[in-house]
């Protein structure tokens, strides 16, 4: 399936060059019946594709250097993000209606510094070790949070007790087969309540090159790409978990990054190398959230009124359509 392009041995041109495989234009790995041979040829084909791509990239770079200022602008690659379908609910920061909603919604007392967050973190009934450790580490990330392990107590009974003890938010970590797979966030006393699917949970000991344990300083909170009305509500809901006045001396930052409706959480510490250079060191834990529903009021699975529910068959018809 290949040709040798090296010199003929013994003609005085030195040792033969290594064999270079040239695949025909219509080459298809799937036509090879032998599994091991098919895998081997696939790896060689990928290697050749990589070499051709690097050679083309090097050629274009040399052309740009030769042209100098006359070089054409670099082409912007097409991605799902920059081809996103426009959403009519995208928030304009200068919109008076949005400003009025922010001044009167459930999170207004927090952003006006009238209330201080107090969080209760609990679990599903009889959690296993990994979920317990995740809750304990999450409590070190969110200041003024308390972990309670519930045993058979219904959420409808927990919520009135939280309100009576001045808790502002309730976080419930659900698990399946000993792995945390869901997060319910309820803002007290009047809601709303968000239900997330949780994935890619990594505890501190599972993160490479992690930093030392986080300190008790209040971290800075960064929210990225929450652009629609729904995303704006979710972003304010997540921000309300942390005190509004971060202690920058602690150099800690909690990031909620929304990309394609997946919310990636990371917890870092700044490392100042010099006056001009700064690095970041991940502290953990890390996880990914996917919004399933947003419900008015506190948690009520039977009679609750839902503001938004993710319906896959109706909403996921276009890969470039995002809701947050």
Automatic annotation (TrEMBL):
Alphabetical list of Gene3D superfamilies matching this protein: Probable brix-domain ribosomal biogenesis protein
GO CC terms, sorted: nucleolus; preribosome, large subunit precursor
Composition bias type Basic and acidic residues, residue spans: 63-72
Subcellular location, record wording: Nucleus, Nucleolus
Biased composition regions of type Low complexity, renumbered to the chain: 1-10
GO biological process: maturation of 5.8S rRNA; maturation of LSU-rRNA
Record bears the keyword rRNA processing: yes
Keyword RNA-binding: no
Region (Disordered): 1-22, 49-75
Single annotated GO MF: rRNA primary transcript binding
Entry superkingdom: Eukaryota
Key words, A-Z: Ribosome biogenesis, rRNA processing
Residue ranges constituting the Brix domain according to the UniProt record: 117-300
Function comment: May be required for ribosome biogenesis.
Protein name in the entry: Ribosome production factor 1
Species classification: Eukaryota, Metazoa, Chordata, Craniata, Vertebrata
């Amino acid at each position: 399936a290949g040709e040798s392009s090296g010199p003929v041995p013994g003609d005085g041109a030195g040792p033969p060059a290594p064999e270079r495989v040239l695949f025909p234009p219509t080459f298809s790995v799937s036509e090879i019946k032998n599994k091991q041979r098919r895998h081997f040829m696939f790896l060689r084909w990928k290697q050749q594709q990589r070499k051709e791509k690097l050679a083309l990239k090097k050629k274009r770079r040399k052309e740009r250097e030769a042209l100098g200022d006359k070089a054409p602008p670099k082409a912007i690659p097409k991605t799902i993000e920059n081809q996103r379908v426009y959403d009519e609910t995208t928030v304009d920061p200068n919109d008076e209606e949005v400003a009025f909603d922010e001044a009167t919604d459930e999170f207004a007392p927090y952003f006006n510094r009238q209330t201080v967050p107090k969080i209760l973190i609990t679990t599903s009934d009889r959690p296993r070790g990994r979920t317990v450790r995740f809750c304990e580490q999450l409590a070190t990330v969110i200041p003024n949070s308390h972990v309670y392990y519930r045993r058979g107590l219904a959420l409808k009974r927990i919520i009135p007790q939280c309100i009576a003890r001045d808790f502002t938010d309730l976080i419930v970590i659900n698990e399946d087969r000993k792995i945390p797979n869901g997060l319910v966030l309820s803002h007290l006393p009047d809601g709303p309540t968000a239900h997330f699917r949780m994935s890619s949970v990594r505890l501190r000991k599972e993160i490479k090159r992690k930093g030392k344990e986080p300190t008790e300083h209040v971290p800075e909170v960064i929210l990225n790409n929450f652009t629609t009305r729904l995303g704006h509500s979710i972003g304010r809901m997540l921000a309300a978990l942390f005190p509004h006045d971060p202690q920058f001396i602690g150099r800690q930052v909690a990031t909620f990054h929304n990309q394609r409706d997946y919310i990636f959480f990371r917890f870092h510490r700044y490392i100042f190398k010099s006056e001009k250079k700064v690095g970041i060191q991940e502290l953990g834990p890390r996880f990914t959230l996917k919004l399933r529903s947003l419900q008015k009021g506190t948690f009520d699975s039977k009679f609750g009124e839902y503001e938004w529910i993710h319906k896959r068959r109706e909403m996921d018809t276009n890969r470039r359509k995002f809701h947050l």
